[in-house]
Amino acid sequence: MKLWLPLTLSLFLFAGCTATNQAPVPYKPTTYNISSNAKKGVAINQKSTATYPGSEIPPSETLPPSAPIVIDSTISSTTLAMATPTPSTSVEPTSDQPFEPVIAAPMPKPLNDDSTMIKIAVLVPQKTIKKYAITSVNSVISYLLYKNYYFDLNVFNSGDEKEESIAKALSDIQAGGYHYIIAPVTAEGANIIASRVTDTLVFIPTLHSSNVRSSGANIIFGGIDYDQQIALLAGKANERVGTFEDGSGLSYQLNALVKKNSNRVVYEKRVESPKANFRQMFKGNGSLNNASLYLNTQLVTSSLIASQLRSNDIHPYMLLSTQVNYNPLLLTLTQYEDRDQMYIANSIQKAPAALEEINTMFGHDIVYDWVNYSTSIGADYLCQQFFNGTIQRTFKETITGNQVVYNTSLYQPGRNEFIRGN
Question: May I ask which residue range the UniProt record assigns to the signal sequence (predicted)?
Answer without folding.
Answer: 1-22
